[in-house]
Amino acid sequence: MKSFLRHTASIALMSLSLWGLPNAHADISVSGTQVFDGNGHSFKMRGVNVPHAWFTGRTDQALQDIAALGANSVRVVLSNGAQWTRTSESEVASIISRAKAEGLITVLEVHDTTGYGESGDAGTISGAVDYWLDIQNVLQGEEDYVIINIANEPFGNGPSASTWVDAHTQAISRLRNAGLTHTLMVDAANWGQDWEGIMRNNARQVLNSDPQGDVIFSVHMYEVYDSDSAVNSYLSSFSSQGLALVVGEFAADHYGSYVAADAVMARAEQYGYGYLGWSWSGNSSELSSLDIANNFDGGSLTSWGEQLFYGANGIAHTAHPASTFGESAGSSSSSNSSENSGSTSCGTAANGYPYCCDSSSDTGGGWGWENEQSCVVPERTTNDTSGNDGADNTGDEDASSGGTCDWYGTAYPMCQNQTDGWGWENGQSCIGQITCNNQ
Fold first, then answer.
1. Which of 231, 311, 346, 421 could form a disulfide with 263 if both were Cys (CB 3.0 to 4.6 A apart)?
2. The CATH number of the domain covering residues in 29-318
3. What are the catalytic residues?
C-alpha cells in the first residue's frame, strides 16, 4: 500500500488440509502453485499487514492480537530509509522473534519503493536489495519462518514488461549470490494491481531466473478487482500457469470504491492461494475503513476486520498454522511426562498432530493450542456429544454453546448473542442461526 500519508493510485477455523510432499530443502519453499513450510507441508498464508515502519511501538501487541484471532502469517512494513525512518537490524530481529513466538510466518517488505516511476519519492528495487544485504545477518537461519518480499509495489503505472522483469531478475540474482536462500515474494506493477498484466504475463520468466525456483508472486487487489469475475480471472490465470500467488494486500473498499473482498477470500480458498488483509490499524482518515482493528485494539474489530476474520472464507475459518511451529514445539516438549503430551493422552490425527484434550478447546473441528504445541480439535456435529471422533476425549458438549451449524461440511458453534452473521463468543467464532439456515 502506498504511504498512509498521501493518496495513491492503488493501495497498495481452521480447516484441515491434505499435506503436500516435502521439497528438496527444509525451508519455506515453492513447488508449482503451492507453498510448503519447512517440514514439507502445504501452507496457505492467511494473515494481516502490520504497519511497523509508521507505528513501531505497536508491533509487538499487534502480533500477539493477530495470532490470537487465528491468523497464521503477517506481512510487516519495513523502511530502508529512502522515505521513512530506516528499520534497524535489531528491530527486524525483534519482529522475527516475536512473530515466531506467536506462531506466525513473517513476510518482510521494504515499503519505500511504492510507485517508483510515478512517485518522485519512491526508492528503487536495487536500493531495497541493498537493505536486505545490509541486514542479512538477522535473516540467515530464519528460512523456515521468514519470506522476503523484495519491494512493495515497486512500479507505478506505465513501466515496460522488460523493466519489471529485469529489475526483479537482477534483484533475485544479487540476493542468491549473497547466500540468502529464503523464499522470495515479488510484487506486481501498477501499484501492485497489475491491471496491465505485466506480472501475469511475465511471471514465469522471473521464476525461471531463480536457481531455487522459490518465488511467490503477489498482487494487491483493490478497486480494479470489483467483481468475482475479475478476481477469478486473475487467480485462475496463475493457477493454470502453475505459479504460486498470494493476494498480498486487499480490503473491502478503497477510497469509497467497492472491492470484492469476499470473492478474494473465496477464490483464494478455491485455488489454494494465500491472502493478507490490509491493514491492522493506523490508516489515514480517508482510508480509515481499511483499518482491521479500531485504534490497534485486537478486541475491537472494524466491519472490515469482522469480514476478514469471520467471513465464510475468512481467516478464522480457513487458516491452519505452519507445521514448523507445532512440530518444533512438540519435539522440544517430548522429554516431558506422558500426561503433558497431547499425542500420548488423546491420540493422534491422520496428519500426525495430537488431538486436543481440553474440551474447552472444542470449536467444532479445526486447530487448537495445548501443551505448547498445535493440536487438532475433533470435529463434532449437533448429534455427536461424545467429543472424541477418534480421540479419547471425554465430556459432553457445552450446554451454553446452543448446538452447532454444519457450514458447508464444517461444524461451528451457534451464536447465543446474535441471530445472523458471524460472531465471536466464549473465545471462539460462532454463526448466527439465521445465517446458518440460509446458507
1. 231
2. 3.20.20.80
3. 153, 249
